[in-house]
């Protein structure tokens, strides 16, 4: 809860293009704490993934744009109602509803991109609304009450609706697919769409030169590489994955009979069962119909049924 509150506050003081990619730092901290507290082993590729995340995060922090000066929630509303962002929001909502009503019933259980796509699309809108709400609360606490504006409560409703939808389909994705696959894909799509939405709505790149933009993108790609590497190798120890499936030998059942005694005839259909290969003995006769069966190697005498 404390972490999410701090993340919420960060959107009020820094651009989303900076705050969202830095969420990868939680992966690094989790890996380090798991190594220290839970004694989990971190593979060398996992260490490399953490280093890549740190390098990428540092690159983004050093070249991120400055926060746009906003003095009221009405100004955020003006940015959100510009044609460019309205077009983006319409495309996002259309794509999300198509995924929900058309693709989820048919492909939700087999294609991982369906659930993650819904979460990422709604996530980009929720971050923009969270940022708007955070700015409104920041201005309110500084003495300029923004709670009297209906736009503040509209952004609040959008935040609640988007977060509930995100959590619903994210839980379905985690329940259906492997977490090690869901986490990096969701982080990639969510962060990419959030950066795109922030660039369209708050025009972050308008205050930067092409060199800074390219450097930011390189830092983001570096974070993605570290995140994928860390999740891909998180179960590796000394170059091996501990949970590999064990293949049962083809003739394990036959070999298991080597220590057994004389095999019995099937009670259902009378098909004789053979004793282990390589055994020798004197045949016995069945009490029912006298079909001879081979005894095990331990048998040295012949017996005949009393019938």
UniProtKB/TrEMBL annotation:
<feature type="transmembrane region" description="Helical">
    <location>
        <begin position="153"/>
        <end position="170"/>
    </location>
</feature>
<keyword id="KW-0812">Transmembrane</keyword>
<dbReference type="GO" id="GO:0015095">
    <property type="term" value="F:magnesium ion transmembrane transporter activity"/>
</dbReference>
<keyword id="KW-0813">Transport</keyword>
<feature type="compositionally biased region" description="Polar residues">
    <location>
        <begin position="294"/>
        <end position="307"/>
    </location>
</feature>
<dbReference type="InterPro" id="IPR037185">
    <property type="entry name" value="EmrE-like"/>
</dbReference>
<dbReference type="InterPro" id="IPR008521">
    <property type="entry name" value="Mg_trans_NIPA"/>
</dbReference>
<keyword id="KW-0472">Membrane</keyword>
<feature type="transmembrane region" description="Helical">
    <location>
        <begin position="177"/>
        <end position="201"/>
    </location>
</feature>
<keyword id="KW-0460">Magnesium</keyword>
<dbReference type="Pfam" id="PF05653">
    <property type="entry name" value="Mg_trans_NIPA"/>
</dbReference>
<comment type="similarity">
    <text>Belongs to the NIPA (TC 2.A.7) family.</text>
</comment>
<feature type="transmembrane region" description="Helical">
    <location>
        <begin position="112"/>
        <end position="133"/>
    </location>
</feature>
<protein>
    <recommendedName>
        <fullName>Probable magnesium transporter</fullName>
    </recommendedName>
</protein>
<keyword id="KW-0967">Endosome</keyword>
<dbReference type="GO" id="GO:0016020">
    <property type="term" value="C:membrane"/>
</dbReference>
<feature type="transmembrane region" description="Helical">
    <location>
        <begin position="45"/>
        <end position="65"/>
    </location>
</feature>
<feature type="transmembrane region" description="Helical">
    <location>
        <begin position="85"/>
        <end position="105"/>
    </location>
</feature>
<feature type="transmembrane region" description="Helical">
    <location>
        <begin position="12"/>
        <end position="38"/>
    </location>
</feature>
<keyword id="KW-1003">Cell membrane</keyword>
<dbReference type="GO" id="GO:0005769">
    <property type="term" value="C:early endosome"/>
</dbReference>
<dbReference type="GO" id="GO:0015693">
    <property type="term" value="P:magnesium ion transport"/>
</dbReference>
<feature type="region of interest" description="Disordered">
    <location>
        <begin position="267"/>
        <end position="307"/>
    </location>
</feature>
<comment type="subunit">
    <text>Homodimer.</text>
</comment>
<dbReference type="GO" id="GO:0005886">
    <property type="term" value="C:plasma membrane"/>
</dbReference>
<comment type="function">
    <text>Acts as a Mg(2+) transporter. Can also transport other divalent cations such as Fe(2+), Sr(2+), Ba(2+), Mn(2+) and Co(2+) but to a much less extent than Mg(2+).</text>
</comment>
<keyword id="KW-1133">Transmembrane helix</keyword>
<feature type="transmembrane region" description="Helical">
    <location>
        <begin position="213"/>
        <end position="230"/>
    </location>
</feature>
<keyword id="KW-0406">Ion transport</keyword>
């Amino acid at each position: 809860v404390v972490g999410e509150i701090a993340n919420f506050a960060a959107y009020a003081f820094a651009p989303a293009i900076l705050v969202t990619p830095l969420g990868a730092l939680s992966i690094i901290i989790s890996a380090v704490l798991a190594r220290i507290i839970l004694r989990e082993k971190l593979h060398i590729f996992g260490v490399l993934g953490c280093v890549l995340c740190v390098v990428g995060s540092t690159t983004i922090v050093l070249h991120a744009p400055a926060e746009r000066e906003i003095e009221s929630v009405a100004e955020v509303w003006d940015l959100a109602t510009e044609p460019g962002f309205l077009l983006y929001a319409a495309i996002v909502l259309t794509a999300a509803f198509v995924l929900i009503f058309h693709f989820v019933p048919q492909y939700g259980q087999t294609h991982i991109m369906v659930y993650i796509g819904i979460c990422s699309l709604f996530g980009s809108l929720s971050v923009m609304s969270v940022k708007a709400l955070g700015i409104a609360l920041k201005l309110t606490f500084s003495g300029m009450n923004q709670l009297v504006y209906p736009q503040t409560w509209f952004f609040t409703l959008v935040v609640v609706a988007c977060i509930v939808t995100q959590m619903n389909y994210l839980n379905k994705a985690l329940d259906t697919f492997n977490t090690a696959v869901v986490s990096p894909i969701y982080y990639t799509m969510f962060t990419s769409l959030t950066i795109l939405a922030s660039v369209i709505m708050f025009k972050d790149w308008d205050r930067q030169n092409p060199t800074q933009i390219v450097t930011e993108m390189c830092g983001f790609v570096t974070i993605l590489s570290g995140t994928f590497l860390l999740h891909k190798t998180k179960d590796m120890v000394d170059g091996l994955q501990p949970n590999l499936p064990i293949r049962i030998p083809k003739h394990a059942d036959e070999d298991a009979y080597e220590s057994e005694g004389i095999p019995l005839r099937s009670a259902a259909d009378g098909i004789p069962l053979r004793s282990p290969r390589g055994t020798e003995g004197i045949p016995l006769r069945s009490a029912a119909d006298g079909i001879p069966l081979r005894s095990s190697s331990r048998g040295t005498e012949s017996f005949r049924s009393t019938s």
